Please model this.
Amino acid sequence: MQLTKPKMIIFDAGRTLINYKEINIRKGIEAYYPYIISNPHQYTVEEIEKYDDEIFGSFDPCRENRFEIPMENKLRLLFDLLELQFSISLNEVAKIEWEEDPVIETVNHAADLLHWLNGAKIRTAVISNCDYSGNLLQEKLNKIFPENQFEFVIASSDYGVMKPNRYIFQAGIVKSGLEAKDIWYVGDKVELGEK
Model:
């Protein structure tokens, strides 16, 4: 089979464009903690972190079976169980947490590659397993790669299914307006077929 120049390259985000250098849940909690307006049990940052770890761990079987629960849903459960109320929306809490945690760095030469693809008129997009929304992921990518021309960014949390589920890729194909043969997917793992 002869490879032809793609019309679009869809990238994974993690370990392909960006690396999650440090994950520090406490930093995220510390960032949204000042927005708590009702904390009847006087939970500290440390106590919220303990519950966060326990409750979010209960979602591990979902990920193991390739389902993605959006971060907002996880936070809603945590805050309802702890009876925490905020002066800002749940989406804003998720955004604050995402801005503080994790610490992200670019993969070597990713910016150079994106620049070259833009010059070569090869369209780009992103499909990534991420429990934060595609909108938040796109905002982060726009800050890291300000010259990117990603036509869309899909996070698994947007659809509830994770790669390599074929439907998340088919959604990307539909969004591109191209045929599958004209698109390359670039990621850090070779996983063929649906799990």
Summary: The chain has a mean pLDDT of 94.
